[in-house]
Specification:
mainly alpha
Length: 71
Amino acid sequence: LELLQSLRQVDPDLPIILLTGLLDDHVICRAVELGCDAFLEKPLEPDLLESQIRTVLLKKRERRETASGKE
């Protein structure tokens, strides 16, 4: 989670998918607070990873377009 926090400080819009061996409620809550976009649990399913990457990038693009339309 320290890395997630550091990444958010460097680039608040960076898409972040957390890969973990255990989906702990405390970790999930803290990661959401820090701006994590998605979670995947090990062992990793390649198709699920690809799907999450596409979803996260699409959401980021939609947010960016919405924000630029408000200006």
